[in-house]
Amino acid sequence: MPPIEEHEELFYQIALTFVPGVGAKTGRVLLEHLGSAAAIFKTPLKDLRHIDGIGEVKVKGFKEPDVMTRAERELNFVLKHNIQAIYHGRNYPTRLANCSDAPLVLYYKGNADLNAIRVAAIVGTRKNTDYGHKLCEELVEGLQSLDNILVVSGLALGIDAIAHKKCVQLGLPTVGVLGHGLDRIYPYNHKELSEQMIEHGGILAEFPSETLPDRNNFPMRNRIVAGMSDVTIVVESHIAGGALITAHMTSGYNREVAAFPGRVNDSRSAGCNELIRTNIAGMITKAEDLTELMNWNKDNKPKAVQKQLFINLSPDEQKIVDMLNGKDSVHADELFYATGLANSQLAATLLQLEMQGIIKSLPGKLYRMY
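Structure (tokenized):
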């Protein structure tokens, strides 16, 4: 059976990413309306243009003959090189799926669980100091004791590479998010490291093969690092460094940011100090501070809660209470997907339950019963 027939939906999911003018947001609108990428391409163009937010200009992109040619080439590439092309509903990182600008397709090679219970991004300057190097290694060492944790970074020089290398050394799963396709490694001297990471985690990209490491790709890469993670830790960063972009994206996704402080006259700590000064990041000095910030301390679990009966709860409130009863804690993202509530409605319902003294919010966007 030809690859396109055997992997029809995957082929069309990939093809959707090549349609000019159709980005991730428009793609999701089409998927919500028609149910699958295959259905989108099999729908007459005159019907597509009537979907809200599509119109004549975006429909024209489906007429480009190169779309199918590139999609077929990419499908053959991922099959040949044992790459997972992940799209929504198929092992897609749930934290990232909750971000409005999440890619339609991710290309992944590795064995790490992208939906680990705990996911921490470690980022920082490419020109780290000895101080930053030491902090980064000690942080990873401190995270080693936690169950089911994944460390994410960008496989760049400096802090990123230090974090990845230490994880590999300790056998801690780590994933590098790339600013180019999986047919190359940049910088090239990280090729051996990337191969080790595939055995102890993986490498991931939204970009298809033949995509060069252009400068504009790296801010896009940073949003995936931020969106995949519960928390982004900035070890060292200049005031205008790429790590600060990641930190601000993390904050925009309503996730936690942490930073190590540095000397006030050290330019490579200026970004961290500014994040702390403006209350974007919580200040940490060691791994234990992070586990406390995120409520990841295994010895700090709440007592077992017997299932309680509450009266006068709304149906939405009851859904949340049923999910939290008997559990140590549940992440807001899990509540979002399980309840089906819109973000604004979920936030309002959680607040109402807190005000009634029924549930308690914890650091790291976690909730549990009182």
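The radius of gyration is 22 Å. The CA atoms of residues 181 and 209 lie 4 Å apart.
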